[in-house]
Specification:
- The complex is a heterodimer of chains A (225) and B (252).
- Chain A is 84% helix and 0% strand.
- Chain A has helices spanning 9-42, 45-76, 80-113, 119-145, 148-156, 158-178, 182-214.
- Chain A has one domain: Phosphate transport system protein phou homolog 2, domain 2 (Methane Monooxygenase Hydroxylase, Chain G, domain 1, Up-down Bundle).
- With 252 residues, chain B is an alpha/beta fold.
- Chain B has a single domain (3-247), classed as P-loop containing nucleotide triphosphate hydrolases (Rossmann fold).
- Chain B has helices spanning 43-49, 80-86, 101-111, 118-131, 135-138, 151-163, 181-194, 207-213, 231-236, 241-247, and strands at residues 3-14, 17-28, 32-36, 60-68, 71-72, 87-90, 169-173, 199-203, 216-221, 224-230.
- Chain B has a six-stranded mixed beta sheet with strand order 6-7-8-3-9-10, with helices on both faces. Chain B has a four-stranded antiparallel beta sheet with strand order 2-1-4-5, covered by helices on one side.
- In chain B, α3 (101-111) crosses α4 (118-131), α3 runs parallel beside α6 (151-163) and α4 (118-131) packs across α6.
- The longest helix of chain B is centred in the middle third of the chain and has 14 residues, at 118-131.
- The chains are: A mainly alpha (225), B alpha/beta (252).
- The A-B interface holds A 1, 3-8, 11, 77-84, 214-216 and B 207-208, 211, 234-238, 241, 243-245, 247-251.
Chain lengths: 225, 252
């Protein structure tokens, strides 16, 4: 539905600000994720440190969204599409915060990996990671443009990330049997799992955006890899 | 849900002007139906069709069928007094009789011949005031004048008066618009209680009140019933763009 403006302009502005904050937070979270994959591939420790420091920005966005949502509910009593806009913003912001946090966690683990890891393993993680970046990017676009089709695509393609994660973990586990750098390899297991979790959060956001657009819930069990 | 009132193809005219256009709606028994819409949309006109209050307006003409159970409300042969015995009404501004609290309640049951003795009448006064959640506040001053009560108390007195003759349906036309938030909450709590025994139709300008008290909501606009659905659906995900524009406060 293409919405008209509210009669009360300040209400309209508050809802636009909320949407804008989500988009900014999402863009930052997506960037953090993308950089964490980059830092892993390039073994760039400086970049990894920057990711860790920058995570605070995402937390600040989350706080701002929480505050805006509580104010809207208390002072405007949003209804229908506005109610969904408000409630969904709160849920999306907590998924984005988790994406930011998991990206930060990837960065932390990179720092302790150093350079003894085979490029084959890193390659597998990179593929899964970039796929996840794409999912986050798409779902944010579906939020921005209220695009139900993209939402459903994101929701349906999480399975691929799950499959990539499984094969990445198998590869790492195999190495663990033969190689000595077990601490570093274990870090890779966590990175693989973080990427998979980020994919799940993108799926959660897809569900929220679908609800926002349609007022209905995406049906059925999410396909599992 | 069993239907208590069933309107089909109702048209209402004030002289040349058509105030309601082809309204069909099912009012469920023992639930609260809220009618919302901008001023002049026809919601109060529709409410007044349900107990033939439009009869008192000379230029008003009602067409179509409104059935109360199996009784045709619009029938010329209908005994309007009996109808109103079964379809009570509470108005925007509390309008107690300029008589004592006791007399306000006792009047209806007495003229409708529902009581045989003083004791029976006392009982009706007490239960009506209890059901209207007013008993504790007035039980020691039943013989004081009703108009001396606070606005919220007066409105509950009017509700007690309406329920004293045990109507099956209660119509409420913006019953809280003259009341403060506490009195409003008391009326809303009362509506919740009353729906166990009565069918309630309420006209309100407060979206949040409609959302709080009703199970079904109908949105009227320019004499049309635009959307009628469960209150949850109307306020979470209305099916009609006009409904959404209205309840979210957008340009309509």
């Amino acid at each position: 539905m293409n919405e008209k403006s509210h009669i009360v302009k300040s209400y309209e502005e508050q809802l636009l600000l909320l949407k804008d904050t989500i988009v900014k937070m999402g863009t930052k979270a997506e960037k953090q994720l993308e950089l964490s994959i980059q830092a892993m591939v390039r073994k760039d420790l400086e970049l990894a440190k920057k990711i860790i420091t920058d995570d605070e920005q995402i937390d600040r966005y989350e706080f701002s969204i929480e505050e805006q949502v509580v104010n809207l509910i208390a002072l405007r009593q949003p209804m229908a599409i506005d109610l969904r806009e408000t409630v969904v913003a709160l849920k999306i912001s907590s998924d984005l915060e988790r994406i930011g946090d998991l990206s930060k966690n990837i960065a932390k683990r990179i720092i302790s990996i150093q350079e003894v890891i085979s490029s084959e393993l890193i390659k597998g993680l990179e593929i899964a990671g970039l796929k996840t970046v794409r999912q986050v990017n798409l779902v944010l676009n579906s939020y921005l443009h209220r695009d139900k089709d993209i939402t459903e695509n994101v929701w349906n393609s999480d399975e691929e990330i799950d499959q990539l994660t499984n094969s990445n973990m198998e590869m790492v586990l195999k190495k663990l049997e033969t190689e000595k750098n077990q601490i570093q390899l274990t870090q890779l297991l966590f990175i693989a799992k973080n990427i998979e979790r980020i994919g799940d959060h993108a799926t959660n956001i897809a569900e929220q955006v679908y609800f926002l657009i349609t007022g209905d819930y995406l049906e059925g069990q999410r396909p599992k890899g | 849900m069993k239907s208590k009132i069933s309107a089909k193809g109702v048209n209402v005219y004030y002289g040349e002007k058509q105030a309601l256009k082809n309204i069909s709606i099912e009012i469920g028994e023992k639930e609260v139906t809220a009618l919302i819409g901008p001023s002049g949309c026809g919601k109060s006109t529709f409410l007044r069709c349900l107990n033939r209050m439009n009869d008192v307006i000379d230029i008003c003409r009602v067409e179509g069928s409104i059935k109360f159970d199996n009784l045709e409300i619009n029938s010329k042969e209908l005994d309007v007094v009996r109808l109103r015995e079964n379809v009570g009404m509470v108005f925007q501004k509390p309008n107690p009789f300029p008589k004592t609290i006791y007399e306000n309640i006792a009047y209806g049951p007495t003229i409708h011949g529902l009581v045989q003795s003083k004791q029976e009448l006392d009982e009706i006064v007490e239960t009506s005031l209890k059901k209207a959640a007013l008993w504790n506040e007035v039980k020691d001053r039943l013989h004081e004048i009703g108009t001396g009560l606070s606005g919220g108390q007066q409105q509950r007195l009017c509700i007690a008066r309406a329920i004293s003759i045990k109507p099956e349906v209660i119509l409420m036309d913006e019953p809280c618009s003259a009341l403060d938030p506490i009195a409003t909450a008391q009326i809303e709590e009362l509506i919740d209680e009353l729906k166990n025994e009565h069918t309630i139709v309420i006209v309100t300008h407060s979206m949040s009140q409609a959302a709080r008290v009703s199970q079904k909501t109908g949105f009227f606009h320019l004499g049309n019933l635009i959307e009628f659905d469960s209150t949850e659906k109307i306020f979470k995900n209305p099916g009609n763009q006009q409904t959404q524009d209205y309840i979210t406060g957008r340009f309509g």
